[in-house]
Design a protein that fits this description.
The chain is of the alpha+beta class. The chain is 60% helix and 11% strand. The protein is built from twelve helices and nine strands.
């Protein structure tokens, strides 16, 4: 069904009117009546004419399959007859006769009733037919409707209804008209599908971006919970040692601290459970490395434009396979590429690579920026280390390379900063066990 006008442009009453089935049928009927005035006469005289009315009705039925086809055809036939009778009354008021005009145009109304009735036979299977097959079926319906109209017209005019009706010409016209409209309908449908696909792609990208961010934060939270657990144990041990007099008062304070820390841990567990549900890897579908690269490159290209930088981000994928650990890879690669984007000047190139090396899959993020000094290549993965400060001197608040290292290590891999290949820029190398990525364990 065609998209309704935006709610911001029409009021609630108009919205209800547009959704009303009778109103929609009336609009189809009026449009068909007007379109029918653009016509050709394949036979000599005015005994029979072919207009665009049938094309308008066919396109409307294809776009609005929810309408009752027979009812739509009947109302359209009545509106067309009434419309043409009105034309006769306005154009020839002195010789106009309602009965005579009705008899002249009745056959046209019959055409729309027969055509819509024929279409109703395939109404619930429109999506099942291929365009070529649908075109052939609609052409047959069109031909039957045209023959019925011609039969009715000659019968009403007292002529023999069984004389040569030019069936070959009518068949050719039916084929041409039907395939033209179905081609137009298919083009509209393909465009709608593409728009839906683009919108779905945007939502998937947003979900992946949120998922990778949540994974990084939940990993950090899980690590903090381990620290909290150790502090709780240490506090309880201190309580046990201080329990003997004359340090009983201090022991109670140590116990209270241990209890408070335990409450913090329980709150953290609840938060972690909520975060985990949002990116539950158990129900996630697999993604290929090529798809992961595409999302990383696109997201960070947008990020670089937001920072008003003109950077070229290129992918070099020499191995490809599906993995259910795409959230992990997105988290790691997104952070490394985002770090490169932030470290670069206005112009530059960032390359993201992937290749096999023995039993490991290697990922590299290489940029043409100022690079990482050799003395910092080991320290850069330590907690708290950063080279990024805002204009107020506040350190960056990202998950940091130390957590990227911990995420990589949790999957049995390793990450390191290496010397750039051409002596300029930064180069980060991530190695992960291929079996772990492929198996999704």
């Amino acid at each position: 069904m065609p998209e309704a006008p935006s709610p911001s442009k029409i009021g609630p009453r108009m919205q209800l009117l547009f959704r009303n089935e009778t109103f929609q049928i009336f609009v189809v009927a009026v449009m068909t009546a007007f379109a029918g005035e653009f016509k050709i006469n394949p036979f000599s005289g005015d005994i029979f004419r072919l207009g665009l009315g049938a094309s308008a009705l066919l396109l409307s039925l294809l776009l609005m399959p929810h309408l009752p086809f027979v009812k739509t055809g009947a109302i359209t036939g009545l509106v067309v007859v009434g419309f043409r009778m009105t034309e006769d009354a306005i154009g020839h008021p002195h010789v106009f006769s309602a009965g005579s005009s009705f008899g002249v145009h009745l056959a046209s109304g019959v055409f729309y009733v027969v055509f819509a009735s024929g279409m109703s036979l395939i109404r619930h299977r429109l999506d099942a037919f291929q365009p070529l097959t649908l075109g052939a079926i609609v052409s047959a319906v069109d031909l039957v409707a045209n023959e019925t109209e011609l039969f009715t017209r000659r019968l009403l005019e007292g002529q023999s209804p069984f004389q040569n009706n030019g069936i070959a010409l009518l068949g050719a016209i039916a084929l041409l008209r039907s395939y033209f409209i179905i081609g137009l309908f298919s083009s509209v449908s393909i465009r709608q599908m593409r728009l839906i696909q683009i919108e779905q792609q945007k939502r998937i990208e947003q979900m992946l971006s949120v998922g990778s961010g949540l994974y990084g934060e939940s990993f950090y939270l899980r690590k903090s919970m381990d620290t909290i657990e150790r502090i709780t144990a240490s506090s309880f041990e201190l309580y046990s040692r201080l329990k003997t007099a004359p340090l009983a008062e201090y022991s109670r304070q140590a116990l209270a601290i241990a209890q408070q820390i335990h409450e913090v841990k329980k709150d953290s567990q609840r938060i972690l459970a909520g975060l985990t549900k949002l990116y539950d890897r158990e129900i996630a579908q697999e993604m290929k490395l090529e798809e992961i690269f595409r999302y990383v490159i696109k997201a960070n290209q947008t990020y670089s434009e937001m920072l008003k930088k003109e950077l070229a981000i290129e992918g070099d994928l020499r191995v490809d396979f599906p993995t259910s650990h795409y959230i992990v890879l997105l988290t790691v690669l997104n952070n490394l590429v985002a770090n490169a984007v932030e470290a670069m000047n206005r112009y530059g190139i960032i390359r993201v690579r992937a290749f096999s090396q023995g039993d490991r899959t290697v990922f590299e993020v290489i940029d043409s920026g100022k690079g990482v000094p050799e003395r910092d290549r080991l320290m850069i993965f330590e907690p708290g280390f950063t080279t990024k400060f805002d204009q107020d001197g506040v350190a960056a608040a990202g998950i940091g390379l130390s957590h990227v290292r911990d995420i990589v290590a949790s999957f049995g891999g390793e990450i390191r900063a290496a010397a750039p290949e051409n002596g300029k820029g930064a180069r980060f190398i991530v190695e992960l066990p291929t079996n772990t990525l492929r198996r999704g364990a």
